[in-house]
Design brief:
This protein has about 210 residues and is α/β, with parallel strands linked by helices. It is built from seven helices and five strands. The N and C termini lie far apart (about 65 Å). Helix content is about 35%, strand content about 10%. Helix 3 links the parallel strand 2 and strand 3. It has a single domain, classed as Protein-Tyrosine Phosphatase, Chain A (Alpha-Beta Complex).
Length: about 210
C-alpha cells in the first residue's frame, strides 16, 4: 500500500539554474518571457561563458599558445594600444604573427583598442613605477591613481553586455590579453573585474609556470 512520506512537504524545492542566453549569460526574466512568447526554448544546459586573462612576460611561444588551448579559449581580446613588443623573445605576440597563429588554432581575434589606457595614463603609471624603483616587467600592482583614472577614462561608459555581444556569440571562453605577467599589474584585471561584477562571470588568470 502506498503511503506518503510525512516529511516530503518539508523538503526544500530543488534550485533550478536560470536559463542562459546565446552568449552563455544568465537571462533576465523579461528576456525569458520574450523568448517563450516567440516560441523559442531558452537553453538551460548551455555552458556558461568564462573569462580568462593572461600576459606574455614569462611565457615562451609554445607555452603561451598551449595555455590558450588548455583553457579552451575561442575568442581572444587584445587590450593593447600598440600591438607589438620590442625584441625577439616576445615577437610571437606582435600583431600579424599573433593573429596568424590564432587563426591556425581557430581562435577569433578582436582588438579592443578602446579599452587600452591612454598615453597620459601610461605615463602616470610609469612615474609611479619610477618612484617605487620598479621596472615595468617586475611590477606586481597598479598604482591607485592609475586604477581610479582608468575606471573613469575607460570603464565609466563601458557596457559589459555589449562587449560580450561583440565577441561572445558562439564563444565560451574569452581571453583578455595585455603584456604584464601579474594580472594586478595590468588593466586587463580591471576589465575582468568589471565583467565579473556586471555579469557574474567566472574569471581565471592564466600565469606562466
Amino acid at each position: 500500500m502506498h503511503t506518503e512520506d510525512p516529511t516530503a512537504s518539508n523538503l526544500p524545492s530543488p534550485s533550478v539554474p536560470p536559463p542562459l542566453d546565446k552568449f552563455g549569460l544568465p537571462m533576465q526574466p523579461e528576456s525569458v518571457q520574450s523568448q517563450l512568447k516567440a516560441g523559442i526554448e531558452p537553453s538551460g544546459g548551455a555552458r556558461p561563458l568564462r573569462i580568462v586573462t593572461l600576459g606574455v612576460y614569462g611565457f615562451d611561444e609554445t607555452c603561451f599558445f598551449a595555455a590558450l588551448r588548455a583553457a579552451g579559449v575561442d575568442a581572444f581580446c587584445d587590450l593593447r594600444a600598440r600591438r607589438g613588443v620590442r625584441g625577439r623573445e616576445y615577437a610571437f605576440v606582435n600583431s600579424k604573427r599573433l593573429q596568424a597563429r590564432l587563426a591556425e588554432l581557430d581562435i577569433r581575434y578582436f582588438h579592443l583598442k578602446e579599452l587600452a589606457p591612454s598615453q597620459a595614463l601610461r605615463e602616470r603609471q610609469a612615474a609611479a613605477d619610477q618612484a617605487e624603483r620598479t621596472a615595468k616587467r617586475q611590477r606586481t600592482a597598479l598604482s591607485q591613481l592609475f586604477i581610479t583614472d582608468y575606471r573613469e577614462e575607460c570603464l565609466q561608459t563601458f557596457d559589459s553586455r555589449k562587449l560580450i555581444g561583440q565577441v561572445g556569440h558562439g564563444a565560451r571562453v574569452v581571453a583578455l590579453f595585455c603584456v604584464e605577467r601579474a594580472p594586478g599589474a595590468c588593466h586587463r584585471s580591471l576589465v575582468a573585474e568589471r565583467l565579473k561584477q556586471d555579469l557574474g562571470l567566472e574569471v581565471v588568470h592564466l600565469l606562466p609556470s
